[in-house]
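In this supplementary section we document a worked example of the pipeline. Step one takes a protein sequence of length 165 as its only input; no multiple sequence alignment statistics are reported here. Step two produces a three-dimensional model, which step three serialises into structure tokens for compact storage. The input and output of this example are shown verbatim.
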Amino acid sequence: MTIARTIHVALCLCMANCFLSPLPDVRTPADRAREVAPKCTKDAAGGASDALLPSGIESVQPSYAYVASSSTMREARLRGARLFLRPAPGLSRESLQRSLECHQSRVVLGGEQERPDDPYVLPGAWLDIGAASTGDGFVVDVQADTFQDAKRVLERARRFVAGPR
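The serialised model returned by step three reads:
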């Protein structure tokens, strides 16, 4: 192996380790909101308008992650809520996800008022939001980092949907 190749491999391994750091993420919710904010435009708010209303949500279920509990078993861990949304004309999973991330960013930074039991925002925490198409609608996973926050997210989502329409 040449010296140049050895250096190249060493640099690649160093860079890979930077992305796989075992250190916890110490960014605050405001730090994360400021990272998302430049991606948000006025148009980003419109895509999620139905998702921000209880009537736009068909149902709520727990969102789980599965972790290995032994060499052959997996254990479910509560991560938050899964919201099943009604279809909306011209809406893609990407635009829905960006809209909801921007909504969370604006609420955290004080640019938008939080709605009661808003399932896409949790005071004091940053939520991971992921959207997917179900063919005739969308599913949005709203996940928290801790079990206690995951329970709060699920409770808020259920109250949001059950609230006044």
